[in-house]
Amino acid sequence: MREGPKTDARVLPADGQEWPLVRERLQALRDLDVSPELGRLNIYCHQGTEQLATVRDEAARVFAHSNAFLSKYLDGSRQVESEVRRMVVEILRGGPDAQTFLTTGGTESIFCAIHAAREWSRVERPTPGVPEVILPYSGHAAFDKACHYLGMKIVRVPVRPDYRADVAAMAAAITPNTVAIVGSAPCWPYGTIDPIPDLAKLALEHNLWMHIDACVGGFVNPWLERLGYELPGFDFRVPGVRSMSADLHKHGYAAKPCSTVTFSSRELERYHFVPVDNWPDGEYKTTGFVGSRPMSSVATAWAVLQVLGEQGYLDLTRRCMETKAALVRGIESIADFRCLDNDSTMVYFRSESLDMLTVIGGMADRGYFPFGVFNPVMLQLVAEPVEPAVIDSYLRDLRQVADGVADGTITSTSIARYS
Ligand SMILES: Cc1ncc(COP(=O)(O)O)c(C=O)c1O
């Protein structure tokens, strides 16, 4: 761990300090993070292009002091937000009756969807015991958190050898307490899209709530499909899907925090909202779980959607997939690395002969921040529309690390942990 510049920031200074000095220290602290060049394929992913970075900076500044909590009362903020919501419904193929709400991230979107499923089940599918949510082993950890907070039980079902949901096993896990089924499009640990149409069919047959977690894929799957990639159903065109989580702050290229939860019909809204009016300030109704939230990131989503348009998203997606192809080619030419077949912009690789934890450790020592998967142990990258030089230097470092692990000169092990 590297040491930062010495500040007394743990203690509120007795006297205020000059902003230029404070800014300098803040920037020095930021520089302790992964360098932007080395982080482009992992920690600084979903940035898009330099032009988009400028758009985000400037759009955020326009609404820097606005609270999106108040957007329904303020004409400008309301229009920005409602235009983003309409564009999102269209991108996710939600149809005229679908409703999108803006949230602060995939975790909040998932929480809102699972909360709505629970409320819906109380009316439409009462359970004898604790309501259960069935999801593939590969589903995001946010579902465990949501179920914990909501007093529900999570049932994770092993995935198939190709790392996609095992529909038969999920069917076998249904009990009288089951209220919802989840599929990812794609999941984070493997980049695979679950067989959403089959899961939705199962949900329809058993009168269950079907949620698609498209936090990663919501704003890339539609363009991949248009570019000719074969994907299983992944959006509201699939009958039986009631809700979707989709992150504007991932492949939507908005600034964080900005995500969406979408319901297939206005009728389901009543299971989403938690209106409060028994306190001194009268009616209190928010669009998600949180109260205050930044209008600045919503403004970046609005601006990026306008600046890119369909053509811009198609071009960026094509460039991400070109990066992915170059990475896969290069990685598979080193040692015995093999990449996982998946449906996303993500690259995962492992080795039969080299200890992957040591490979990950070697890359971390070189200043990278390697996302790692534990089961099986793999290194994960997110393909970005980067210059070929970024890919070349990554591959050069990886080759040297692989050689070092093979000849025993690299021994430190590491893995990026989410704790
Ligand atoms: C598939 C998936 N779902 C949900 C999330 C949670 O999103 P957030 O970190 O924005 O809360 C992530 C984050 O990577 C994800 O990949």
Tally the helices: what do you get?
A: 13
**Uncertain residue ranges:** none
Helix and strand run: HHHHEHEHEHEHEHEEHHEEHEEH
Shape: globular
The second-level CATH architecture of the largest domain is 3-Layer(aba) Sandwich
From the 3D structure, determine the CATH topology of the largest domain: Aspartate Aminotransferase, domain 2
Largest sheet: 7 strands, mixed
Number of domains: 2
Bound molecules: pyridoxal-5'-phosphate
What would the average pLDDT be, to the nearest integer? 95
What value does the Rg take, in angstroms?
22 Å
Would you tell me the structural class of the helices and strands?
alpha/beta
Roughly how many Å apart are the termini? 16 Å
Counting DSSP E segments of at least 2 residues, the number of strands comes to 11
Helical residue percent? 40-55%
CATH superfamily caption of the largest domain: Type I PLP-dependent aspartate aminotransferase-like (Major domain)
Strand order of the largest sheet: 1-7-6-5-4-2-3
Protein name: Pyridoxal phosphate-dependent decarboxylase family protein
Family: Belongs to the group II decarboxylase family. Sphingosine-1-phosphate lyase subfamily.
InterPro entries: GrpII_AminoAcid_Decarb, PyrdxlP-dep_de-COase, PyrdxlP-dep_Trfase, PyrdxlP-dep_Trfase_major, PyrdxlP-dep_Trfase_small
Cofactor: pyridoxal 5'-phosphate
